[in-house]
Amino acid sequence: MDYRLSGLKAAAEGAVWAAFPFFVMSEIAKAYEPKEVEAYWYKQWLEAGCFKAVVDSESEPYAIMIPPPNVTGMLHMGHVLDNTLQDIFVRRARLEGKSVLWQPGTDHAGIATQTKVEKQLRESEEKTKYDLGREAFLEKVWDFREQSGGVILNQLEKLGASCDWDRTSFTLDSPYSKAVLTAFVRFYQRGYIYRGQRMVNWCPATHTAISDEEVNMKPQNGFFYKMRYELVEADSERTHLEISTTRPETLMGDTAVAVHPEDERFKHLIGKAVWRPFPKAELPIIGDEYVDREFGTGCLKVTPAHDKNDFEIGQRHGLETIEVIDESGKLNGLAGEEFDGMDRFEARKKAAQKLEDMGLLIEREPYENTVGFSERGDVPIEPRLSEQWFLKYPKVEEAKRAVETGIIKFHPDRWKKTYLHWLNGIQDWCISRQLWWGHRIPVWYKKGLERSELDFSNPEHVHVSVEGPLDPENWEQEADVLDTWASSYLWPMANLGWPDPDADQQKELDYWYPTSTLVTGFDIIFFWVARMIMAGLELFGEDKESLTDEEIAERIPFKNIFIHGLIRDEKGRKMSKSLGNSPDPLDLIEKFGADGLRFGICNIAPTGSDILFSEERIQIGRNFCNKLWNASRFRQMSGPMSDNSSLEAIHARIDPSLLDDYDHWILARLAGVTEDIEKCFSSYELAPLTHQIYGFFWGDFCDWYVEASKGKLKGSEAERDNCLAIQDLVLRQVLQLANPVIPHITEELWKGLGYGSSEPFIQNMKLADASRILGVLAVDASAVERVANLQELITQARALKAKYNLASKRDVTVFFGAEGGAAQAVSDNIGLIQTLAGLGSIQALGENSADRLPAAVTPLGPIYLDLSSSLDVEAEKARLTKELAKLEKQVAAGEGKLKNPKFVDSAPAQVVEGARKQLAETTEKRDETKRILESLG
RNA sequence: GGACGGGUAGCUCAGUUGGUUAGAGCAACUGGUUUACACCCAGUAGGUCGUGGGUUCGAGUCCCUCUCCGUCCACCA
Question: A578: pLDDT confidence band, cut at 50, 70 and 90?
Fold first, then answer.
């Protein structure tokens, strides 16, 4: 079945609707079925080029660069949140008439991807990458990318993401790679990149150095070993030093023992020596202020090859560096034959055992310390001395200034503190990785020269360029590749053609750069956000020592940074495969529809902090879509469809003289919610967005306006048509306001209700602001209060019925006791009250006695339920007594406040007036309640 | 150790510069097929706004103390 036979479509196209009661058609789904609608419209959008980014000097530019997901990754809830938010921003921008670019793409994700392929290779062919060699292995990775790459982008399409897919970019594409290498060369030439032997974080699982940012500290339960190192020359006082360590397996690499130079216990020993137990060697005792006298025994074993601090001590004292742990985390021959080839954790046990056997282990106490783990490899990192490439961050001062002065704004603002704090203590970035999958560092070394002989300032020794040397046979290229983040940090500029834009790209750069908004999680502020800013500041434009604010504003990659929280499960745990608490978004789309999921995720995503996810909380999205669907169906069932082709056409159908209070009220609310939502976007506060839409549409429009209009629809044709025009106006605006969040269903209804008859897509009609939505209609603001009073009376009447278990009875009579204007307000709305409260009749109390009738007090006077014969007087008395007590308290509070001269004098007149009015109303209500209570006897 | 965020109804959270009687959704309970919607409608109940103090005519909101939770940064072997 073609879903487009649905009632909405049929009605939209049937000019002779009135003769066609479509609701008897069997095909019509009572509930919204998103599947086909979503697939249909997504295809339409693509075919019509709705997402194409076009430079249009007449329109304001709006650009978002997608945070590129891992090319071989799968869509998870974090992506759903991140991309839904981006889609909301860009779709809203389109509705505002801006010219939008949403750039999609993927990241080659060096370690993650290479590790996956290595694992596959191991499992399927029992081979390592070394068996294949660099080239053959890389072919495998490219194959893998061909198979699994881009799946995640297809998944984003299922979500409805409106990226310009023709521009899909990949960080290893050749133009992008050229940008990466160019950046490297320029940084190198400007002195920001250098090579050096440093202590780095080594990941023994993935065999590469990683940056400080990729190390996560985790508390670990281990042991604190206390052992003795015998003095070479025992004196009368002592024969040995006691030393505490958590890592006895490194003792074979010890080259000294350090004490604090002022430590009275030990300072006389400085210059003497102790025995390293195995392999047996004399170690000097040195004095170094790094040693904390209070900690442990006050004596520190120094292993310069395997500890960052020890390395520094070693540098200061010219100590020998003995590497006993290799790149895989295994001990080597220098540790002694018995340890050769042993895993480091195995060696820890064995070393402790050996010390014990030698009588040198004094104590072994359980101990919790924090250990750095490799983010990717998920094993403890090994501090390791190696040759690496480093980037000294450029334009740090400008990067701070950009955010401090608001040239770049964080939303919410508080994240700027995190950003600035990181920039303040920033260390050089290790950008080389001992991997094959990535951008190979564009540095060549002259063959025949030892690495140690290289003079980096001599172009005969070292060649650095994008293209490589002219005589490649005489050179050997650096084997390392760049950290993935040292390529994605160019994302905004490289995707627009930097560094060598052609004429078209230059236009795009001029138009869309700097981009408008970056949407991402706080977890990559350091990894990505800050680095993009610094890269842009340094590389976008001429080489400059320092930048003015104007130059900063031209070079930054984005003007706004929208930071959202991380999705966690309902218990607040991180989502992970191993916990099995990470739902597949595609299943959720199946269950709730893409729009339902989008609405739901947006609804539970407060700005900033973590988001606790549960399916239950997503249901609201599906429910809302269903409500929207049904309200639209109901609109069609309520009367003929007329000219909905434009806002003006609908305005022309409204006769202002026929507007009643309810019409004025809903129009005022419509303008209000339009403004509120405008504010959500202008202030980057999306938390209230769905709440506003939901509350207005469901609470105000469906529950009150549509219900109230049910009576009117039975009235005169003019009255009916006027009411339908108002409904059309509201629905039209709601569809546009909600469109960024739930694009598919709103597009379907837009078409179905005939709003798209002149322009095919909802995004082509500019969203009306609060004043344009009302047009020439003058809204009577005082209607708002009258409607509120009426609603209160209706609610009270319903409640009265419910209290006497009469909710379902529709023949109940209610009396109203108001006089004067209030009585008029009630009698003017008899029909409405009857309909909405479900009454048989509502009539003036007149000569009837109100005694012993259940009653309620409303802003429009008291009302009484006609129930005299079967009233439970005692229960009613109890209820009213409780009510009265509450009112007494409120009156007393109000009186006290107004008697206080300080309040009357110092509070604003408006507030005082409000308090007076409130007191008057409460007092009246109290008196009325009291009177009713007394009448019960 | 430093910084940041948070503690409001059973749960998840709103609550704008201090100003009427602190709200919503979900869950619970009661009743309901009334011209769309049970993915629905009507109603009920549920809160000393973490603790203690202060400023103020007035504090969920501002200031201070303490406490608990979360996150990030830096970490003593």
Answer: low
Contact A275, A283 (CB under 8 A): yes
pLDDT at A7 over 50: no
Instruction: Name the protein residue, with chain letter, whose CA is nearest the C1' of B76.
Output: A295
Residue A565 to residues A231, A410, A782, A898, Cα–Cα distance (Å):
56, 14, 42, 46
For the record, the structure tokens of A753 come out as 């209700």
First to last CA, chain A: 68
Distance from CA(A693) to C1'(B13), angstroms, rounded = 17
Q: How far is the CA of A70 from the C1' of B53 (A)?
A: 53
CA A496, CA A509: separation in Å to the nearest integer?
Answer: 6
Strand segments, DSSP code E, in A473-568 are 475-477, 481-482, 515-521, 558-564, 567-568
Q: What is the DSSP letter of A767?
A: P
pLDDT band at A923 (very low <50, low <70, confident <90, very high): confident
Is there a contact between A74 and A116 (Cβ–Cβ < 8 Å)?
Answer: no
For residue A869, the model assigns a pLDDT of 58
* Protein CA at A679 to nucleotide C1' at B52, angstroms: 39
Whole-number Å distance, CA A787 to C1' B34? 22
Task: Quote the pLDDT of residue A10.
Answer: 45
Which bases of chain B are under 7 A from a protein CB atom? 3-6, 12-15, 19-21, 24-27, 30-44, 56-58, 70, 72-77
Pairing type for strands A208-210 and A169-170 reads unpaired
**Shortest CA to C1' contact from A603: nucleotide:** B25
pLDDT category of residue A674 using cuts at 50, 70 and 90: very high
CB A846 within 8 A of CB A802: no
Torsion of CA A87, A90, A91, A97, to 10 degrees: 180
Phi, psi of A750 (to 5 degrees): -55, -45
DSSP code per residue over A799-841: HHHHHTT-TT-S--EEEE---HHHHHHHHHTHHHHHHHHT-SE
Which residues share a beta bridge with A844? A816
* Contacts for A629 with CB less than 8 Å, ≥ 6 apart: A31, A32, A745, A749
| Residue matched to tokens 């001269």 | A901
Nucleotide nearest to A910 (CA to C1'): B19
State phi, psi for A16 to the nearest 5 degrees: -100, 45
Q: Any residues with CB less than 8 A from the CB of A275 and at least 6 apart, and which?
A: A229, A230, A231, A232, A281, A282, A283
CA of A215: nucleotide with nearest C1':
B73
Please name the nucleotide lying closest to A632, CA to C1'. B36
Distance of C1' in B10 from CA in A322, Å: 62
Q: What is the pTM of this model?
A: 0.90
Judging by DSSP bridges, how do beta strands A475-477 and A611-612 pair with one another?
unpaired
The protein residue nearest nucleotide B40, judged by CA to C1', is A627
Span CA (A607) to C1' (B15), Å: 15
The separation, in Å, between residue A688 CA and nucleotide B15 C1' comes to 11
Contact of A29 with A625, CB cutoff 8 Å:
no
Contacts of A538 (CB under 8 A, 6+ apart): A186, A187, A190, A192, A394, A395
A21-25, A357-361, A770-774: least confident range? A21-25
Question: Pick the residue with more confidence: A26 or A600?
Answer: A600
Cα distance between residue A49 and residue A45, in whole Å: 6
Residues paired with A444 in a beta bridge:
A463, A477
| Secondary element (H or E) of residue A385 | strand A382-391
